Amino acid sequence: MQRRKFIKNSLSGIPILLTVPTILNSSCQNDTIIPTDKTVIIVGAGISGLSAAKKLHEKGFKVTILESQDKVGGRLRTNRSLGIAFDEGASWIHGIDGNPITTLAKQARMTSAFTDDESRKSYDIGGVLRTPTIYDTAEDELYTILNSLNKKGSATQSFETVFNSLYPTKAKDRLWKFLLSTYITFDTGDLDKLSSLLYNEGEEYAGVEQIATNGYDTIAQFLAKDLNILLNQRVSKIDYSNAKVKIIHNETISEADYVIVTVPLGVLKANTIQFLPAIPLSKQTAIQKVGMNCVNKFLLTWNTAFWDDVQYISYTPEAKDKFNYFVNLKKVNPAANALMTFAYANYARQTETMTDAQVIDEIMSHLKDIYGNKIPNPTNMLRTKWQSNENSFGAYSYTAVGTEMQHFDDLAEEIDNKVFFAGEHTEIDYFSTAHGAYLSGIREADKIIDLQ
């Protein structure tokens, strides 16, 4: 599903397309190598850290990346243990026109396939197939509501509070619970915490949706080539009180002229990295106020496919945010008898306390209600646990109640021209996206280059 497609189309009717920098065509005016002995340490080998490192390395800086995990990529993480590339984090290129990920994907030889949002079937409880007219009418009405709900919101009220007060009948309707879950919660965050004023913030690229078929981590591997990356290095302290910045990792001290911190917002919220001196109050406030969503993904495989030959299968149970949307991976990879489903917000967090068997039972109860009790159980399942993952503590940022758009710029603000910050949560126009993370790395690299 296209991130923000539904919200942005409802507001303007026209996707927003901006020209953006890439590593090969950045805000730096030329590709001249800068003679320098300046050193840069980058904390985190996600796409933001890698894009910053690659640009700085190509400009002649001495760059080292410290990565806490045993591989590069961060939330660009692909599991191939079942013979299918299961992207645990980013899966789609959200709008291919002008999107820097489109170019990167080609350079990295990441293969992808078009996913058709209109290729879908929607089922209600009891396996009742919903007519396209009913679904489309509700979807169109959602667009209309999104066009005006923020005008009736307030800085202290959540999206859920305002929506439920204005549309109490819809709030209890199963189809509407699904639409709110998969069109809003999936793209943003917990509806009871999502800002009723800022739920529609963020830009998008035009063009179709493309889902990675051989793994989104191919981009990370491409960016990482020829870079100095130290794996399994957990940073615990950054001391920028002196001329050189000291970074403590695994009880080792490294020094550099500059440091770029690219850890996810969830890690900043958890205060697992100590800053000396303490970071400015404006940045502390932004870390606290901007929300961190949780979306967990589940890949299930079977020996043969029993489901509809469409791209998306939806199911509308009474409970919200719970295995209500299935991506048919066979449509983009004919050899894969696999479905991918999701859990959002609080239910996503709840799944992390459930066993594999419990998760499978819950998913299968929905599929059996659609296709009958005789369908087989899956042969395998892969899953994510982003909330309890100490390298992320969540999936991506969103505009929670109390968030101000200035907070994203505050998160991006450098300190003393020595400590810089990148990551999707620092990109005011493209927060919560892989392309936003990528662009943030280029942005911070350019800041350091401009200091020379």
Automatic annotation (TrEMBL):
Q: Which reaction does it catalyse?
A: L-tryptophan + O2 = indole-3-acetamide + CO2 + H2O
Where does this protein hold substrate? 342
Cofactors required: FAD
**Which segments constitute the Amine oxidase domain?**
47-449
Q: Which domain of life is it from?
A: Bacteria
> Mind listing the UniProt keywords for this protein, alphabetically?
Auxin biosynthesis, Oxidoreductase
Family annotation (PANTHER family): FLAVIN MONOAMINE OXIDASE, LYSINE-SPECIFIC HISTONE DEMETHYLASE 2
Q: What is this protein called?
A: Tryptophan 2-monooxygenase
Query: Which Gene Ontology biological process is one annotated for this entry?
Result: auxin biosynthetic process
